[in-house]
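Notes to self, Polymer-forming cytoskeletal protein:
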Amino acid sequence: MVFQSSVFESRQKIDGFHLGDLEVKAGQSCKVDGFVFGSITIRAGAKVKVDGFVFGNVINLGGEFAINGFVLGRRIYAEPEDDGLRVINPNPSLPKSKWPVSIIRRITRK
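result:
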């Protein structure tokens, strides 16, 4: 159980839940078996797998993200460019919600 923001620079596995923001750097991997209460930032080249739930935003800056559960928050995808980052909105035609949190549910079946 972790109670603060964490920056992972090696292979990590979290059993249970993580409280606080989570950042995974390039070339590293993180597997969560449980819950994340906070945002996840995934750098380019990083891998994150969550078997459970994320209560916060998922900011993917070019890494791999897989979830078997759901995200209660926003998924933000960005691609690196020469002058910085370009944010990709997968559904630009959808109206913006009045609520600050949207539910995105994705269930992976084997």
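- The longest strand covers residues 29-37.
- The chain has no helices and twelve strands.
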